[in-house]
Amino acid sequence: MRSTKPPRRSVRPAAHPVLFAAGAQSERVRELQARLRQLKLFDRNPTGYYGTVTAASVRGFQRRQGVPRTGTVDSALWAALRARTQRPAHDELYPPTTRPLDDPDPRCRTGRVLCISKDSRTLAWMVDGTVRSAMDVRFGSAYTPTREGQFKVDFKSRRHHSTLYDTPMPYALFFSRGQAVHYSADFAASGYTGASHGCVNVRDKKKIAALFDQVRAGDKVVVYK
What we know:
The protein is α+β, with helices and mostly antiparallel strands. Helix content is about 25%, strand content about 25%. It contains 6 helices and 11 strands. A 9-stranded mixed beta sheet has the order 6-11-3-4-5-10-9-8-7. Helix 5 links the parallel strand 9 and strand 10 (about 200). The radius of gyration is 23 Å and the shape is elongated. The N and C termini lie far apart (about 95 Å). Pfam families: PG_binding_1 (PF01471), YkuD (PF03734). GO terms for molecular function: peptidoglycan L,D-transpeptidase activity; transferase activity.
């Protein structure tokens, strides 16, 4: 006589929920990057954006753990990473980004001026000779150099996107035929290993956001060596 009991089904363990994946952007992603950096798996400044570099770093940690290299972070992997690292300090999450300022060009000493030094790789926002704020900047490569001279801010675009290079240019302050001062996530992540297409890149998002609100069209821009 045949058994009438239904066949047993194998029960698979429930998958751990994915917490971080490509395209995510948050303060927890910044913490993830800082913890990976403690293990020398992430060699850039934390940005809070989960891109290809972060995914590659996660795969490196997964390789160490002997788990599938998916490039995403589930709850189990996050717990393992936290167990092997320390809670990041503020300077690990937000590394200092202010280089020493150069002596300002004489053209920067009067009026409202974005005073940009190629030698010190800094931008000083000056009003009547007084520095109101300062930030690190980088410039174009030898093939796409940032123009030098005295200009003025032609227009501002808070959420600009370059149609020429298909790349975001947040907090853009245009001053010379398509060249602008703007925030660069790549500069924030990789520092001076890269270059712009001619624009003046800023890596401190909070500083450039505050600067964007203060600068007006018509303000002077001086780029000098």
